[in-house]
Amino acid sequence: MKGPGQDVARHLEPDAIRSACRDAGHTWRRCGLVPVAIIRWFVTQILHENTSLEHVARLGGSLFTGPAYGMARSLLPLAVFQNVLHELVKALIPDTHT
What we know:
- By secondary structure, the protein is mostly helical.
- The protein is built from 6 helices and no strands.
- The longest helix has 15 residues, at 78-92.
- The chain is globular.
């Protein structure tokens, strides 16, 4: 991931994302848009001022389409987003004190 999300992405631990999915009872199959990728691209989307799904796909090097990302994102339980983003904010708070 390049651009405004680089510093934020270092706080998005893959194991924590997978754990949040398991805690929410979410299962997934191996493909390009696994939960770790979905969460990272979601954060990128928000950091790019809630850019379009198609733009996220272009930022991803066109490894997936906008509709595929949108569908994958919609299948991820809200509890996963809430858990991961809550932990991300907690991790970023120390960065605001510098």
